[in-house]
Amino acid sequence: MKVLIIGGYGTFGFGMAERLSDEPELELILAGRSLDKAETACAKLSGATTLTPLKLDRNALDLAFKPDLIVDASGPFQAYGGSPVVDYCLKHGIPYADISDDGAFVSAVLAQSKAAKTAGIALISGLSTCPVLSAIGLREIEARIGPATDVTIGIAPSPKAELGRNVVAAVANYAGQDKVSVLRSGKIVKTTGLTEVRNETICVPGKIPLPRLPFALADAPDAVVLGADFSALRNIWTGAGTRPIWLHRLLVILSKGVARGIVPKLTPFADIFHRARGLFRFGIDRGGMVVRASNTDGDASWHLVAEGDHGPRIPALPVVAFIRQMAEGVTPVAGAYSGHQIIGLPELAPEFSKLDITYGLQFDSESLPVYEQVLGSAHGDLHPSIIDMHRTGDGRVFVGECDVTRGRNPLSHIVAAIVGFPKSGRNVPVSVTVVPKENGETWTRNFGGKTFSSHHSLGKKKWARHVTERFGPIAIHMAILEESGNLRIETQGWSIFGLPLPRVLRPGGDVFETQDRQGRFVFHVDLKAPLFGRLCKYEGWLTPET
Hints:
Blueprint: E1 2-6, H1 11-19, E2 27-32, H2 35-44, E3 50-55, E4 69-72, H3 84-92, E5 96-98, H4 103-110, H5 113-119, E6 122-125, H6 129-145, E7 150-156, H7 165-174, E8 178-184, E9 187-192, E10 197-200, E11 213-217, H8 222-225, E12 235-240, H9 245-259, H10 270-279, E13 286-295, E14 298-307, H11 317-327, E15 335-338, H12 345-353, E16 357-363, H13 370-375, H14 384-389, E17 396-406, H15 410-419, E18 425-437, E19 440-447, E20 450-458, E21 467-471, E22 474-483, E23 486-496, E24 499-500, E25 508-515, E26 521-529, E27 533-544
Helix pairs in contact: 7-10, 11-12
């Protein structure tokens, strides 16, 4: 099977070739305006796939051969002004796919459905993150809450990800201009790019959340194509969360200036923004996506996180999955399609599994217990005794035994006394009472007659998707992780009297919950803090009081 990839040495085209480089039945032709770059790209790859470099201008296609598929991975699609590759495919009867993120371009391709049927080929546009992953998230949510009416989609590349010049040029092309399609009250309308902002926290269930980020309205095909398959949708909004955040905010300010006519169009400054983004590639190397949807009965959200350099590979994966399908003899009926109509989670899950990519559902319902809300779909993966422990009721009591070890530093004794930690001892009788409150849960622990309490609640704003535990004036913000059925807690921040305190003074330690061979709930809490050392360690088991 011979596949021509236009833009084959670019970020996404090369990503496709990289994922497919060990398929002996494929010949991949990596094409672009520079033969040297195409040859270099081919030389970087090794495997069973036949790789061929080709110098090619997409605006003047004249091939001496007929490929089985042409993939346009070049862009920016916002600046095409036409569809020369699509026209060539229709004329010569060649199946076509692209990774367009431009709603107008995708719509123009879909309008060619009759011509595609006449030519006997499939035209597939938008075979990329949006709308393919947007639709995947929406399907997962609707399986839980039913048909959704409102959806917000946010994409946040890793701050260390290298963004191609074409990606930045595409953003500059619509910034502050009435070129972005959104679905509002059931109607597709044009509005100004990057001038509307929504905040979201991306958190795959049972994993550490990404920082809470602002997302600015971005151009994407979602608004113009998802309505055909999700008929209940009334509002669709897609945004991008660029990091560093200061650059994101600067782009929003400039875009608002463009919209008001006090700042020139940003298109000529694309190279400057591209260089600036490249100079400030700092921060945690994690990127992700969130799809939040709701209806009158409830709401939920689907989250995806890519670690390290795996995020920039995602836009190419739907095309990779499609090429694998074609290589196996599976081809769509002639016509024009949006990418989400061809590739779904069953096709992409195998591609995700080869990379450090995780995903899952969060259940945004205040009626659920605190830990179940934070863990989302990962809650069901916990050991039964842990699930039972966090299934709050009216004053549920658990009893057992534990060993307690206090820190040796005199300063740690002062902190332990303020919080109310118990004194050292072995086989200490312990009971824990969990009482639901309007805004969380109160956990009261009794260690041999020594009682101390803390309040657990959902984190707010910056600490969304965390659990906040309060010991008097001290607030600890915790990430709740699921690991092979166990629950692990990692401190992410803290404050005293509402005043955030520096990371160098942040308490932490080793805190986890598991289940022993007898099916009992087992806890291990070893709290430590800089300057103080160990504050208190207590570990033991609990069972429901009979």
